[in-house]
Write a structure and sequence with these properties.
The chain is mainly alpha-helical. It folds into two domains: about 5-65; about 85-165, no CATH class. The protein has eight helices and no strands. Helix 6 crosses helix 7 and helix 7 (about 135-145) runs antiparallel to helix 8. The longest helix is centred in the N-terminal third of the chain and has 41 residues, at about 5-45. The chain is rod-shaped.
């Protein structure tokens, strides 16, 4: 084989190798950008914003490098519930006899009870949701104890999730 043919073959292999390496780097860069974009979209939910802020500025790069970025597009959501019954009817409209029939105590006793339990039951609001008030938590417990209602119906009554009851 002639030296010029060998040189041409070597140059061809070198060029092909460079093209393959460039293609591979381009694919890796696009994949990294796609994963970063997906993570940014995920982190735009309130929970994700809290995670990113609390963990530091390099969290995105670390999560991408470790492969913790899920390429599946996801959305944050919560089911709409109504708390009007508790907020507007029970607390504002019910008289003492209705409180006594439904919660087995008067409203003033209920409020004193809540005040006593407040240090143990008070919770802080989070990035995901506002905490339930002590009054509502106590009312849910008393309602469940005072009635034969299911967890689901008590949850619907107070506008909370079944697992909250």
């Amino acid at each position: 084989m002639e030296p010029s043919a060998i040189i041409a073959d070597v140059l061809s292999v070198a060029n092909n190798s460079r093209l393959i390496a460039h293609l591979f780097q381009t694919m890796m860069q696009r994949n990294r950008e796609r994963r970063q974009r997906n993570l940014r979209e995920y982190l735009n939910c309130e929970r994700g914003i809290y995670l990113l802020q609390s963990a530091g500025p390099r969290t995105l790069d670390i999560m991408v490098a470790m492969g913790h970025v899920d390429p599946v597009e996801r959305r944050c959501w919560a089911r709409e519930t109504s708390t009007d019954w508790w907020d507007r009817i029970v607390l504002q409209v019910w008289d003492e006899s209705q409180w006594l029939r439904n919660f087995r105590m008067r409203k003033c006793t209920f409020m004193e009870f809540c005040e006593l339990l407040s240090p143990a039951l008070k919770r802080q609001d989070t990035q995901m949701r506002a905490a339930l008030s002590v009054q509502k938590r106590v009312a849910i417990a008393l309602w469940k104890l005072a009635t034969p209602d299911s967890y689901r119906s008590v949850a619907n009554q107070f506008g909370v999730g079944k697992s909250t009851v």
